[in-house]
Q: What sequence folds into this?
């Protein structure tokens, strides 16, 4: 029986819009696809879009006139139930329709690692490599609060040397975890690098056909730029189609500097982009899984930078959830988060925004932390957030006013003053309704003060991290590892740039 | 207040309020009043754009306002410059060619830098996105640039910054230009040294500060 996921309640989740309102946004998305279109910076993908029935301006590289009937027909082919496989089937993520279960993982993709120098009381910034990918993967592998394992560090150092960074990164991920290994992202060398990653996955899965049945990762698209698939995203989509990798599509606009300032309009754009990508995927690769990225992105108008998530973002995410759950029956995933900043600021931002993602019933919640540079202390911080949310959702039923939950007979039995509650069997049997935190400091105030009043993020979480670093995932068989490393070596030789 | 002062204030105000109509009217007034067009630019329009730039640096005004003010400044300056003999047109602080590297189609950062630097007296040539190495060099040679700036927002496209640095070296042009790099993907000092750039920034205000220092150093030597 797979471990992952928390069963969601059947009602009570945060919903913003009536069906009629969803229909209006949905219609607006089709109008955008028809009249505005999507910029696609890849000749091959443009041809594929044309073959699908769209109008293509090859000079401007824009796909317009995307027919509504064609999109709906193809999106309908995406499976409602599917599997994201762990190396260990106990960690399989089983999606059985949208809004049924919720899954958690930390996510980052940081190109740099931040190490805290106790002596200097300052951060040291180092370029991250696949060694850091592996380091973080192993830690996440050992934390039960995380259902999946996404890369926290990019193989940026390899990329800087001109080596295929995705290949090196995915090698580290597949070796570093028995859980589903997350995101395959964009590369610099058309789909050749993805071909190598497919071979890696096949080694772990036991063959290409097995990898198709039990996908160990999926493809994730960077979403910067309005209604556009840059060439890297385009290559990635073609690779996904070729190798039957599931997709988490996103094509969005960064309000208010590169997209409409109001969440409704920006949601229509995000929705349009996802509709287009899933339709294209399903036209060429029907039946391979897709989960809509519920991102409705914004930037800070004061700085132009990616900002702490805003009401715009959250309202849009909720609307996207409803659109995809209620109109299309597909799950949603999110990777909104916060930019790199102090640990306490990130903890604050992430906890409030992830709680909203939880409440709106997002299926796959990726707690995006760090941004460009990651302090690994964010791993226990993310675990605390995930645990709090998981505990909330998994005990939701206790508020249902059933006779058992109301316990009127016990209330009457115990009577006023309630002295006997503390050892009453009714309560003793239900103490699990009051779960302990992952690593929050629960010591008495005086004890905490006597201990020097240590900061939770800077002291307690770092201490917890030391404990978490000891975990080792179940290793792959030696011969598989050897073949995987050989594939990476071959890829490094053949795909080196510059 | 003397008429001249009032007109200069109107010019500044129009830039601060990104009011193109008011700016052009103030330009006509300045010309009609016989105000030295150089003074109208430096003490009128530039005073306004400096105010906006400073506010943006302090986080007191949003980016779109800065860009709109810079656009008004550019149009109003162009009209005044028609009245200035070529040899008397004020020299910019420096001339810069700026673009996003090949394969990268992000332009928000370079647009911010263009607005900010224009506002601060630089002559900017923004060559746009997805620009191969050759285009940076060709434009720099054409306009006799002081600075070449290359932006990359994705880790995929960072290598192009190295290629540009290599190309400048190979052609013996490395010392002719100040080479600055930046963008959202920028990894920091180590990469900057590795690719042989003079400096880097991932923030427009910091970039401006660094560019001014680099220009100052170059002029001294």
A:
């Amino acid at each position: 029986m797979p471990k992952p996921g928390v069963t969601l309640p059947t009602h009570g989740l945060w919903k913003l819009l009536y069906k009629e309102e969803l229909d209006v946004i949905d219609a607006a998305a089709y109008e955008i696809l028809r009249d505005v279109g999507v910029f696609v910076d890849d000749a091959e993908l443009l041809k594929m879009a044309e073959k699908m029935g769209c109008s293509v301006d090859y000079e401007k590289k824009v796909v317009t006139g995307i027919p509504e009937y064609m999109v709906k027909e193809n999106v309908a082919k995406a499976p409602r139930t599917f599997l994201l496989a762990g190396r260990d089937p106990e960690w399989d993520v089983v999606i059985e329709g949208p809004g049924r279960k919720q899954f958690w993982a930390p996510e980052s993709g940081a190109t740099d690692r931040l190490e805290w120098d106790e002596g200097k009381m300052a951060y040291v910034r180092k370029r991250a490599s696949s060694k850091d990918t592996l380091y973080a993967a192993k830690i996440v592998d050992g934390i039960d609060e995380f259902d999946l394992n996404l890369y926290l560090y990019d193989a940026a150092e390899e990329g800087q040397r001109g080596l295929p960074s995705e290949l090196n990164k995915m090698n580290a991920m597949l070796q570093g975890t028995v859980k589903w290994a997350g995101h395959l992202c964009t590369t610099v060398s058309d789909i050749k690098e993805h071909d190598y990653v497919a071979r890696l996955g096949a080694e772990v899965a036991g063959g290409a056909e097995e990898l198709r049945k039990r996908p160990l990762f999926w493809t994730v698209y960077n979403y910067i730029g309005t209604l556009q698939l840059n060439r890297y995203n385009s290559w990635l989509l073609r690779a996904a189609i070729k190798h039957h990798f599931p997709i988490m599509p996103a094509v969005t606009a960064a309000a208010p500097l590169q997209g409409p300032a109001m969440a409704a309009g920006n949601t229509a754009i995000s929705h349009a982009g996802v509709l287009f990508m899933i339709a294209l995927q399903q036209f060429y690769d029907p039946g391979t899984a897709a989960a809509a990225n519920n991102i409705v992105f914004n930037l800070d108008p004061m700085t132009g930078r990616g900002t702490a998530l805003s009401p715009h973002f959250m309202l849009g995410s909720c609307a996207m959830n409803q659109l995809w759950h209620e109109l299309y029956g597909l799950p949603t995933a999110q990777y909104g988060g916060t930019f790199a900043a102090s640990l306490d600021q990130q903890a604050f931002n992430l906890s409030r925004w992830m709680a909203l993602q939880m409440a709106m019933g997002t299926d796959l919640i990726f707690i995006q932390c760090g941004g460009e540079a990651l302090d690994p202390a964010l791993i226990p911080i993310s675990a605390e957030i995930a645990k709090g949310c998981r505990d909330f959702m998994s005990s939701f039923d206790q508020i249902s006013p059933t006779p058992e939950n109301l316990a009127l007979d016990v209330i009457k039995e115990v009577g006023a003053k309630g002295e006997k509650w503390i050892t009453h069997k009714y309560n003793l049997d239900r103490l699990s309704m009051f779960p302990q935190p992952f690593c929050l400091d629960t010591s008495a105030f005086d004890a905490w003060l006597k201990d020097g009043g240590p900061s939770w993020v800077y002291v307690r979480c770092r201490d917890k991290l030391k404990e978490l670093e000891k975990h080792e995932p179940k290793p792959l068989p030696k011969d598989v590892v050897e073949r995987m490393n050989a594939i990476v070596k071959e890829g490094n030789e053949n795909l080196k740039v510059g | 207040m003397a008429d001249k002062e009032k007109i200069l204030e109107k010019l500044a105000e129009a830039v601060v309020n990104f009011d193109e109509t008011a700016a052009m009217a103030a330009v006509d007034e300045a010309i009609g009043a016989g105000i030295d067009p150089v003074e109208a630019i430096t003490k009128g329009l530039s005073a306004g754009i400096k105010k906006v730039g400073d506010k943006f640096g302090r986080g007191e005004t949003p980016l779109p306002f800065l860009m709109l003010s810079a656009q008004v400044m550019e149009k109003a300056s162009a009209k005044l410059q028609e009245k200035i003999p070529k040899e008397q047109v004020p020299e910019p602080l420096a001339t810069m060619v700026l673009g996003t590297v090949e394969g990268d189609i992000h332009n928000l950062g370079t647009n911010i830098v263009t607005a900010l630097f224009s506002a601060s007296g630089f002559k900017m040539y923004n060559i746009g996105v997805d620009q191969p190495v050759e285009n940076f060099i060709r434009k720099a040679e054409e306009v006799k640039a002081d600075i070449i700036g290359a932006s990359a927002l994705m880790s995929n496209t960072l290598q192009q910054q190295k290629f540009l640095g290599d190309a400048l070296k190979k052609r013996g042009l490395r010392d002719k230009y100040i080479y600055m790099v930046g963008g959202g993907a920028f990894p920091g000092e180590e990469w900057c040294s590795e690719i042989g750039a003079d400096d880097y920034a991932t923030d427009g205000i910091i970039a401006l500060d660094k560019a001014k220092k680099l220009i100052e150093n170059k002029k001294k030597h």
Chain A has a mean pLDDT of 94. Chain A touches chain B through 33 residues (CB under 8 Å).
